[in-house]
């Protein structure tokens, strides 16, 4: 792996697995690697279950074969597989996928379903899934990634690990990310995810999201972004698709009223806009620093030249003759030069890691 690929992989992985909370969370690549092997074990049990009920479970067998191919890629190189944030997010959604299968198999409660119930405690929680989704949105903010490109599993800086078709985000995944951003009031971030979900509605491994659900969230997000005309068009589409939708008619009348009022209140709207500009000036320094930070991260994801890469090295570091490090110096490895990023090896023992 190139230095640039390694650097970006650790940035992406760190953002995806660093979560906090009172419940147990998946905070290391080791935890998520265990999940991959749990899934591999479940797939082995599922094979036996299918053999016993071949005729009734043809649909399950097709699903199993798809997941088995993904599991083979994942377990052949767990670290590389989880280095892709799309794969890491899919891993956090493992519980939802297997729960859907469990519902389908309720008529046969023995065998594989019993094994699946035993492993449920090992699955990521809802808190873990939401944490992974928030991390994915943070990556998108920092690196200015396009939602459609990110949903396809393509990442900057040459970071590409083998992907199977299921590793691209489905309409269900995109809707979940858009709805999370929506619930946090981040409408500018919600809009592209919801728009992409709408463009591929009906496609995906779960396929539970409907166009009416997406249109409901998307129309209001667009309205909050100030595009009342587009919000009105989307709501009209929703009303045609689902005439009995509980909010469609009310929103339709409201947006029509807003459009009618817009012309009559143009002068007041202009005054409000000037006030918004004045308020934005107060935050100019904050946004400038934030933008500089994000630009730094994006520039770091570019390819490193061979000349710069040759200057990276490994060394033993004694902290300028620090008494505690003279006999046991730290192993230091250059990961990046501008900005300078180093990795320290073997600082914490396995026992200390387990304790933490």
From TrEMBL:
<dbReference type="InterPro" id="IPR011990">
    <property type="entry name" value="TPR-like_helical_dom_sf"/>
</dbReference>
<dbReference type="InterPro" id="IPR013547">
    <property type="entry name" value="P4H_N"/>
</dbReference>
<feature type="domain" description="Prolyl 4-hydroxylase peptide-substrate-binding">
    <location>
        <begin position="171"/>
        <end position="260"/>
    </location>
</feature>
<dbReference type="GO" id="GO:0004656">
    <property type="term" value="F:procollagen-proline 4-dioxygenase activity"/>
</dbReference>
<feature type="signal peptide">
    <location>
        <begin position="1"/>
        <end position="23"/>
    </location>
</feature>
<protein>
    <submittedName>
        <fullName>Prolyl 4-hydroxylase, alpha polypeptide I b</fullName>
    </submittedName>
</protein>
<keyword id="KW-0732">Signal</keyword>
<feature type="domain" description="Prolyl 4-hydroxylase N-terminal">
    <location>
        <begin position="28"/>
        <end position="157"/>
    </location>
</feature>
<dbReference type="Pfam" id="PF23558">
    <property type="entry name" value="TPR_P4H"/>
</dbReference>
<dbReference type="GO" id="GO:0005783">
    <property type="term" value="C:endoplasmic reticulum"/>
</dbReference>
<dbReference type="Pfam" id="PF08336">
    <property type="entry name" value="P4Ha_N"/>
</dbReference>
<dbReference type="InterPro" id="IPR059068">
    <property type="entry name" value="TPR_P4H"/>
</dbReference>
């Amino acid at each position: 792996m190139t230095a640039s690929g390694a650097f970006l992989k650790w940035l992406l992985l760190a953002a995806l697995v660093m979560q906090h909370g009172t419940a147990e969370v998946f905070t290391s690549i080791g935890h998520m690697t265990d999940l991959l092997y749990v899934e591999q074990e479940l797939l082995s049990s599922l094979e036996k279950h299918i053999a016993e009920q071949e005729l009734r479970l043809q649909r399950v067998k097709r699903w199993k074969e798809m997941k088995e191919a993904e599991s083979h890629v994942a377990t052949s190189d767990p670290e590389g597989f989880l280095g892709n944030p799309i794969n890491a997010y899919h891993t956090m959604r493992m519980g939802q996928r297997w729960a859907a299968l469990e519902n389908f198999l309720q008529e046969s409660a023995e065998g594989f379903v019993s094994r699946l119930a035993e492993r449920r405690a090992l699955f990521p929680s809802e808190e873990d899934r939401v944490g992974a989704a928030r991390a994915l949105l943070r990556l998108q903010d920092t690196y200015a990634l396009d939602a459609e490109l990110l949903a396809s599993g393509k990442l900057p800086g040459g970071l590409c690990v083998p992907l199977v078709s299921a590793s691209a985000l489905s309409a269900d995944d995109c809707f979940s990310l858009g709805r999370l951003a929506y619930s946090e009031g981040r409408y500018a971030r919600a809009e592209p995810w919801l728009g992409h979900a709408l463009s591929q509605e009906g496609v995906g491994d779960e396929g539970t999201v409907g166009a009416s659900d997406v249109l409901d969230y998307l129309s209001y997000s667009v309205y909050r972004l100030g595009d009342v005309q587009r919000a009105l068009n989307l709501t009209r589409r929703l009303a045609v698709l689902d005439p009995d939708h509980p909010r469609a008619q009310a929103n339709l009348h409201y947006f029509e009223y807003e459009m009618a009022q817009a012309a009559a209140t143009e002068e007041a709207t202009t005054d409000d806009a000037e006030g918004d500009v004045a308020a934005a000036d107060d935050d100019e320094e904050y946004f400038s620093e934030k933008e500089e930070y994000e630009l730094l991260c994006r520039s770091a994801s570019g390819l490193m030249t061979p000349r710069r890469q040759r200057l990276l090295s490994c060394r033993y570091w004694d902290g300028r003759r620090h008494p505690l490090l003279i006999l046991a110096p730290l192993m230091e490895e250059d990961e990046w030069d501008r900005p300078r990023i180093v990795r320290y090896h073997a600082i914490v023992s396995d026992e200390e890691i387990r304790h933490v």
